[in-house]
Each structure stands twice: as structure tokens, then as C-alpha cells.
Amino acid sequence: MEQPIGPQVDPTPAARPEPVTLCGRFCRIERLDADHHGLDLWRAYQDDDWLWTYFPAGPFPQERDFAEWIGQRAALPDPFSYAVIDLDKGTAGGILALLEIRPEMRVVEMGGVIYGRALQGTTAATEAQYLMAQYAFETLGYRRYEWKCDALNARSRRAALRLGFAFEGIFRQHRIVKGHNRDTAWFAMLDGEWPARKQAFERWLAPENFDAGGRHLISLAALNKADRG
Q: What kind and span of H or E run contains 30?
């Protein structure tokens, strides 16, 4: 009996993330290094315990506790973590990671995003997401790029949609985090969608999209919404 199956797909595995340096106009991304980035990141996160509300680790009351965690985090192959360097300030202002790495399925997740207060809402923060998506699709060869967050994390859910990820649903009672239930909201971007998402990022980052005061004339959310019709 004939049964429907999906279209054929190139079975060649994607590549695993490497300690590359990705350079943009506003930020630089480099492999997280505890010795090199630790102090900058401690200063970026210090006294902002709310940054860790939805994160499995933290907050860290003492610098030594944070230093121990960042050293462990930097050594992990999955999540494979990177520091985001704000070129305007010349310091590390946050971290992000590629995780749930499945090269044979060509699926990877963008996550572990912790931006310090000074980096949040900046052009550098968004450019970092553009550089990582481009790296995942064009260099490493992934076909599915995921974003997952606590379903109660409204900021992360808004960010996913703004960046061009599509909402796919909620996994109920998906995890236990710090002794609390977590329902997980799933988002994803596919390789076939990347060219349009890339164009939206590049239009948003283009010099002509900035006014004299450095503000964007067209929002990234509007560019992605226009593309989807």
C-alpha cells in the first residue's frame, strides 16, 4: 500500500559550531572565554538579578560564583557559547549559544541568550542574532534553526517573532527549572525561509535605515511582517 512520505533531503550532516570570530558593523562575536570575557560580563550582569529569572542558572551573588559558572559554561561543547562584543564600547556585553546541536538532522537551537542591560535593545544586540543565523545556515549547513523559551517569558517570545522566527506551539510541562514548572514556547526558522529573513535583517541594518539621530526608520518586525504578507 502506498503511503505518503516527505520530500527527499540531502542527508549530509551539518557541521558542528567552531570557535570562529564573526564581525559586523556594530558587534563582534567570538568564542566565550572565561579569562578574557569574565570580568566584562560580571560587570554587565551585576545587580540585575532579573536577567536570570528564566535561565536555569543564576543569579550569582558573588563574582567568584559567576566566575566558576562562566568557566564551566565556556568549556561545554553543547551549549557552544559565544561572547557578544559591543564595538562601540569595546567590551563583552552578553553571551549567546548554539545548543541542542544535532548535525545528522541538521537542526540547531539559538539559546542561552543573556544580554546585559547596556546591550539590550541596541543595534549590536540584533546584529549578533543576524550573524549567528547566517553562520548556522550558510556556513554550518543547518536546515532548522530553533528558538525555545519559557512560555511566560514575554520578552523572549516578542524577540523571537521580531527576529523572524515562526511560532510553532507550546509544549506543556516540558521542563522543571529551579523547582518550577516550565511550559515551553517553540519557534523556528527554516533554511528555505532564511533568504527572506536575511534580506529583512540587512535592510534593517543598512545605513540608509538610520536617521540623523541613529534611530531606525523601519522596524525589523515590520520588514519581516511585510515579507510574510
A: strand 27-31
Contact 106, 143 (CB under 8 A): yes
pLDDT 10s digits, 72-111:
999 999 999 999 999 999 999 999 999 999 999 999 999 9
Residue 135 CB contacts under 8 Å (≥ 6 apart), including other chains: 17, 20, 22
All three cell numbers of 8: 527527499
Structural domain includes residue 8: no
Q: What is the largest CA-CA distance in the chain?
A: 66
Q: Which three cell numbers stand for residue 64?
A: 567568584
C-alpha radius of gyration, the chain, whole number? 18
Q: What is the CATH number of the domain that holds 53?
A: 3.40.630.30
> Contacts for 4-13 with beta carbons within 8 Å, 24 or more apart?
9/143, 12/141, 13/103, 13/104, 13/106
Is 138 a domain residue? yes
